[in-house]
Amino acid sequence: MERTLTKETVNKIGQKVHVMGWIDRLRDHGGVLFFDLWDRSGILQVVVKEIKGELHPQDVVSIMGEVKKRPAGTENKELSTGKVEIEAQEVEVISKAETLPFDMGGPDLNLELPTLLDWRALTLRHPKIASIFEVQEVVIDAFRKTLKDLGFAEFQAPIIVPATAEGGAEVFPVKYFEHTAYLGQSPQLYKQIMLGVFERVFTVTHAFRAEPSVTTRHLTEYISLDAEMSFIKSWEEIMDTVEHVVHKIINAVDTHCSEQLKMYNTTIPTAPQNFPRIKLKEAHDIIYKRTGRDNRSEPDLSPIDEEEICRWAKEEKGSDFVFITHYPVKKRPFYTYPDPHDKEFTLSFDLLGRGLEWVTGGQRLNDYKELIENIKRWGNNPKDFELYLQAFRFGMPPEGGFAMGAERVTMKILGLANIREASLFPRDMERVDIRLSSQKSKVKSKNGKKD
Amino acid sequence: MERTLTKETVNKIGQKVHVMGWIDRLRDHGGVLFFDLWDRSGILQVVVKEIKGELHPQDVVSIMGEVKKRPAGTENKELSTGKVEIEAQEVEVISKAETLPFDMGGPDLNLELPTLLDWRALTLRHPKIASIFEVQEVVIDAFRKTLKDLGFAEFQAPIIVPATAEGGAEVFPVKYFEHTAYLGQSPQLYKQIMLGVFERVFTVTHAFRAEPSVTTRHLTEYISLDAEMSFIKSWEEIMDTVEHVVHKIINAVDTHCSEQLKMYNTTIPTAPQNFPRIKLKEAHDIIYKRTGRDNRSEPDLSPIDEEEICRWAKEEKGSDFVFITHYPVKKRPFYTYPDPHDKEFTLSFDLLGRGLEWVTGGQRLNDYKELIENIKRWGNNPKDFELYLQAFRFGMPPEGGFAMGAERVTMKILGLANIREASLFPRDMERVDIRLSSQKSKVKSKNGKKD
User: Fold this and answer.
1) Ordered structural domains, chain A, with CATH
2) How far apart are CA A337 and CA A246, in angstroms?
């Protein structure tokens, strides 16, 4: 008999069907088994009145049975199949699951982060965990579609690079035959080269930062959504584009992920048509006035300052987003365009959203000679940037671009506490799937008791 | 004045417009300059009757002028703007290009491969070179769309991995803080894990092979289009899916890339609804009969055998594609499903197209204990596959999948001689953008003369 997907059962009341999937939320109600069967289309309640053999959570089963209307008062409004259930006539276990190391059946998976990651192949199956990556897919698709609609071409940026491009951030060396290469810290130089080929480009790629610190906001490998555009009329046009892309992303999440938002008890960020745009200096002044915290000589915002300026934007401007502009030259990479009115500052910006940086961007130097000067000034050798510099030797219009980390966007939309939760297989100083110290955690739930 | 894109000029005959772009194919016809202006939308012929200052190929220019119908007999049917041209009234050079190291103005860029790559930021701008990556984008988009339509979820596979998954192929080590990690040779293990989350998954990722050889078919970094599906009825279902995806890809190229196909003087491959499916043994027999070449004891097809069996498929079955199935156990990775009828062979396949492997795939072992046995049998330690094995400890239905290299597909659709031509920034033993030996090539054209 042909397989029926669980979501299709709502149209087959009274019919005999064949469904397959994984068992979740198994309950024994006095000799009658109830469980959720999940497949790629959704979840369906299964009732087993005659039990032969044992069933376990995460068993893979093939079921023959009849689709029935649920008894009045037992419908589940949260489920698209909530008005029906299947009464199983035959249950075949296709693949048996071992006893789970913790309970997966609740609406939340109440585990500490190390446990959540030590058992990642299992914990990802929990509907609330899986939903994070449904949102992430929608975010990436919306980024891609929005830019294609604006005439941007997608390209594939290389991961292995010959030299380190971004001053400051640490890199991972790769043993490349007899040579040393590196993992790209960003596709920056390649997207700039590609402007000479397609005028406007973007890439969905992975970027790598060997930052020797453990925070709730950093991963060593992250998904970088990178765009670059030439023939800009002004550097504000880049921020206009960021606004447009962010609007499209959060609207797509609102449209396609209402269930996931509900699971996390959240709504999409408040995004007025124009996000406030303030200079870093102004941000420091505002923070000083609001809190008495005087960081006015700092070249950047600290994490608590980022949170404070977002509170200000929400309270004063009704916006969960705020652009911070004009970072000092010394805090930005060599390719950043200096502000013609004050050469110590740059035509650069960060977009903060809900207390954290979502996007970084700005106008770039497009003059060949100025770029060479800056590469030297930053202590690098122009010979190491030969291919990149070629793009500017042979005609490059005014240009700029931006990058956003898909995990940060996902984290902030859903209100996750740690960026590792927004990465399928998060990498940090201490973990690449398994813990690098090779010490396995005991299973611990969040409230500290051992299961 | 607002910018007009070149392709929009066809609707503005008689109007004054502002266009911007790069100069290509600059010709001086007795004091009147003609050139192609290209922007992201296409190409437009520009006529400059009053020349002030110098213009060069690849200069970026801003032009004010009037759109005119071209004189009768001078239309260019190959161009979407071929019925019009713009008579420039003002030409402003926005960014000046240095003198080019070779002529970029012809329909072909007649350079030897090392030169093509040494000047990659420039040579990518040639319309015929750029068109390769327009085709590649269409290939990747068609792969993505086709699988989404089939209910596959897209996920992001990690690049940095803790252990080597595929026996045989060489890996690149990464210095990961105080530890050693590796670049993923394929997203195989992760896509299998993800089946437990989304039932059907795919990823567009980069894969890395440190193969110490230089061929026309291998890159050290390549774009891997990877899919995996569970609840398969039989392993043939995987081949059915490959057929469907390949049809959709080549149809998308046919629909969206007719100009690019014309530039390469080619058409899409001949693809009957069902591609021939023959066992490796049968392929060796056919080759032996046709050529007298006796490789019947070989566990694989050599490159010339791949070409020969494709000639057979074309001549005898009218197909540019042929599945070769049932590779021996010893030639396939530990996770490959053995043929129940002959345990020395596997339920695996390669899809060859136009003489080269496009796709590799097969059914996988989904039984936890068998997997552990096989990992040991292949000389690996199950502890190194802990996360992967978790997915099978907790219920995994019968499953399989496939992978295709985007560069190979692009190469074979366009008839390129070397896979490096189908990679924006090809990496091999000898090159990561710049030559690793650091010896810069002299500019050489294909017929050997120096420019």
Assistant:
1) 6-95 (2.40.50.140), 125-423 (3.30.930.10)
2) 23
